[in-house]
Amino acid sequence: MKISDLGEFGLIDRIRGMLPDQTPDVIVGIGDDVAVLRGNGDTVWLVTCDVQVEGSHFLLGAVSPRDLGHKALAINLSDIAGTGGSPRFALISLGLPKDLPVGFIDALYTGLRAEAEASGTAIVGGNISGSKLGFFIDIFLMGEAPEQEVLLRSGARPGDKILVTGSLGDAAAAVAMHLDPTLGTRDDYRRLAFQRFNRPTPRLKEGRLIAKTRNAAAMLDISDGLAGDLDHLCERSGVGARVHADRLPVLPENRILSQEKHGNEWHFSIFGGEDYELLFTAPLDTAETLARTIAAETGTPVSIIGEILPLSEGRQLVLPDGRVVPLEQKAWDHLRS
């Protein structure tokens, strides 16, 4: 059997089964984007890591090293945002081909420093290795939060509303335009889409505010696409879900491109990935107030896109014409994609 037969998530389950039970200091361990570890007093540590590999996650000729530095840290920060925490310390490991220009590292760290300073993160060390198989960057990030405010993907309950920050599908549109230059759109939207793909904005302020209100039930960031990450939330919470296609926060230009490329207006927003927005649930009686509060205090719009169902009702997508179809459980899989 090959690892591609298992897939990314099957391999994670296999590894988890090979390791001993977690100690009492581990609140959340293998299987989530963020490990939650007991700290001192009422504070917990939030620990995550993410690797970006040349040829798998990016092509050196298609992204500037400064943008790569921004993005490599931002996607880790987004994981911390998805728990409602605050970032603290980062360790950065690099795999470097010997012929890589020194100026590449200078620009990379210019991006890393800017993202770190904007988020209040201290870069405190790391590791350097030679690489004969291309460049890679791996970031280990620690954050913290009050234990009672940490949000997990396991807290959703039937009747909750499903909410998302910002807009969806823009990064996927950028990838589609890069791969298919015949796809045309307005210049201002093209710039916005590529900006969102190359320099995603981790929703740290929004995540912290959501956690502090204690009005949300479950949360994670959207990296694998709305359908994939909603599936992760449903699996951990033991629930189903219904999403309304006409309530998705999608810019008009994105709808046009999605229709042109995939034959419907919502493909990029549901299956695209790399949005790094927050996906969360809240009880019916607090969802609308919570959405208004976040928008008012951060300037980031929040949309209510659906509701949590009992597990037996599965995952559903309500089309604009009212038809209800199964919501495909597509998620980015590093070992199969």
What order do the helices and strands come in, and which of them pair?
Blueprint: H1 3-18, E1 26-28, E2 35-38, E3 43-53, H2 65-81, E4 86-96, H3 102-119, E5 122-130, E6 136-146, E7 161-165, H4 170-179, H5 187-198, H6 204-213, E8 218-221, H7 226-237, E9 239-244, H8 252-262, H9 267-271, E10 278-282, H10 284-298, E11 302-310, E12 315-318, E13 324-326
Helix pairs in contact: 2-3, 2-6, 4-5
Offer a concise description of the structure:
The chain has 337 residues and is an alpha+beta fold. The protein has helices spanning 3-18, 65-81, 102-119, 170-179, 187-198, 204-213, 226-237, 252-262, 267-271, 284-298, and strands at 26-28, 35-38, 43-53, 86-96, 122-130, 136-146, 161-165, 218-221, 239-244, 278-282, 302-310, 315-318, 324-326. Helix 2 (65-81) packs parallel to helix 6.
How does this structure look, described?
The chain is an alpha+beta fold. It folds into two domains: 32-149, PurM-like, N-terminal domain (60s Ribosomal Protein L30, Chain: A); 161-326, PurM-like C-terminal domain (Phosphoribosyl-aminoimidazole Synthetase, Chain A, domain 2), CATH 3.90.650.10. Helices cover 37% and strands 25% of the residues. The chain has ten helices and 13 strands. It has helices at 3-18, 65-81, 102-119, 170-179, 187-198, 204-213, 226-237, 252-262, 267-271, 284-298, and strands at residues 26-28, 35-38, 43-53, 86-96, 122-130, 136-146, 161-165, 218-221, 239-244, 278-282, 302-310, 315-318, 324-326. Strand 1 (26-28) and strand 2 (35-38) form a beta hairpin. The radius of gyration is 20 Å and the shape is globular. The model has no long low-confidence stretch (mean pLDDT 94).
